[in-house]
Specification:
- By secondary structure, the protein is an alpha/beta fold.
- It contains 14 helices and twelve strands.
- The strands form three sheets. The protein has a seven-stranded mixed beta sheet, with helices on both faces. It has a three-stranded antiparallel beta sheet with strand order 9-12-11, with helices on one face.
- This is Histidinol-phosphate transaminase.
- InterPro entries: Aminotransferase_I/II_large, HistidinolP_aminotransfase, PyrdxlP-dep_Trfase, PyrdxlP-dep_Trfase_major, PyrdxlP-dep_Trfase_small, TAT_signal.
Length: 394
């Protein structure tokens, strides 16, 4: 039996909506006040990954944040190599960093096996997702994606006049590629695939996704968001190799996850040069990335030891969480990312409020009309604290 989703039910949680608003770079944070965000019964801000530090800590009787597990951040980064590079680069902050950016682009082109003309830089991959949406959907059309999925590109597409053709995930929470292909019509301007998928953490079999992207990209562009791919274990493969076959695919990568540079804002897209030329009409490539971040990215990219450590510790902490959730009777969705989602036994707002009172920040989603907690993988100490706090709610 196929699952049934609606846009309202999948991400109807007020906290998820506010999170999406806060995370969208095209919305001015200055437009919001502390009162704009939903509060719990004790007048605490119960969710905002970007604004909590500005508002929550200033309120009376609010505990300190002891485990920040709500934004899928890398708890170990940036690596020491990047920190050193950033510190040393500050003195050059009075100059534009085109030369250094060109070096980074050359490194990424070599890493991905493409020419530098196939690379577009941006301040985080979400910025590039949103700019693609601005260009492709300026005159309407529709976008096909799984439901649930990461909403950044979709929300911007809708904001400029597009419609979202949401295709429910299969019963195992993977993309229903057959149904997604069937949903394509004459007004479809893009298919969006987040792989591994946020917020559920699932991944598509590499050969199945490769076949889909190869075939469908001859009809419409296929955007594959691979923000979490480098953290995944098992049957994984980037779709970048399809570019050599002249397929119209766009692959997004970020330095925010395995590289530990979420706050330094560096990401890139890999696509056909003719596609990127369309996006260049509203962006100047890496102009939005500061000099220090470029130098940090160069160092981080070369720090293979840090990347391997992040992946190893992420897997260890995730396996610990799996064991503890199973012992408590929670049926989690196996994850290929640095987060795990599982159904909870109370409504999301109440759950978040109770966890916040213990100094633990997580996310809540409604899927199939059931509340779920999405917890990011932190350090082992943070995961142990999360589990202890979870047990106290049982």
């Amino acid at each position: 039996m196929k699952t049934s989703f609606s846009r309202r039910n999948v991400l109807k949680s007020g906290l998820a909506a506010m999170g999406g608003m806060a995370l969208s770079s095209h919305i001015s944070l200055g437009a919001f006040s502390a009162r704009s965000f939903p509060l719990d019964s004790e007048n605490r801000l119960y969710y905002s990954p970007l604004l909590r530090e500005h508002f929550l800590e200033e309120r009376p009787n609010v505990p300190a944040m002891l485990a920040r597990l709500n934004a899928n951040e890398n708890p170990y980064g940036p690596p020491e190599s990047a920190r050193k590079a950033v510190a040393e680069s500050v003195s050059g902050g009075n100059r534009y960093s085109w030369k250094e950016l060109a070096t980074l682009v050359d490194m990424l082109a070599s890493k991905e096996g493409v020419t530098k003309e196939h690379i577009m830089m941006g301040p985080g991959s979400s910025d590039l997702l949103e700019k693609v949406a601005l260009v492709l959907f300026a005159k309407g059309g529709n976008i096909v994606s799984a439901d649930p999925t990461y909403m950044s590109l979709i929300r911007v597409a809708e904001a400029v006049g597009a419609t979202w053709k949401a295709v429910p995930c299969k019963s195992d929470w993977t993309h229903d590629l057959k149904a997604m292909e069937a949903a394509i019509d004459s007004n479809t301007k893009m298919v969006y695939i987040c792989n591994p998928n946020n917020p559920v953490g699932t991944i598509m079999a590499a050969n199945e996704l490769m076949d889909f992207c190869s075939r469908v990209s001859t009809k419409v562009p296929v955007f594959i968001d691979e923000a979490y791919l480098e953290l995944a274990e098992g049957d994984t493969a980037s779709m970048v190799s399809l570019l050599a076959q002249k397929k119209n695919v766009i692959v997004a990568r970020t330095f925010s996850k395995i590289m530990g540079m979420a706050g330094l804002r560096v990401g890139y897209a890999v696509a056909q040069p003719e596609f990127l030329s369309k996006i260049e009409k509203i962006t100047r490539g890496g102009m939005g990335i500061c000099h220090t971040s470029v130098l940090g990215a160069i160092a981080s990219l070369q720090d293979k030891e840090f990347q391997a450590m992040t992946k190893r510790l992420n897997t260890q902490c995730k396996n610990y969480l799996y064991q503890e959730l199973s012992a408590l009777g929670y049926k989690y969705i196996p994850s290929y990312t640095n987060f795990v989602i599982f159904p909870i036994k109370m409504d999301g707002k109440t759950f978040l409020s109770k966890m916040a009172s213990k100094g633990v920040m997580v996310r809540s989603f409604d899927m199939l009309n059931k509340p779920y907690c999405r917890v990011s993988i932190g350090t082992m100490a943070e995961m142990e604290f999360f589990v202890t706090s979870l047990k106290e709610l049982a």
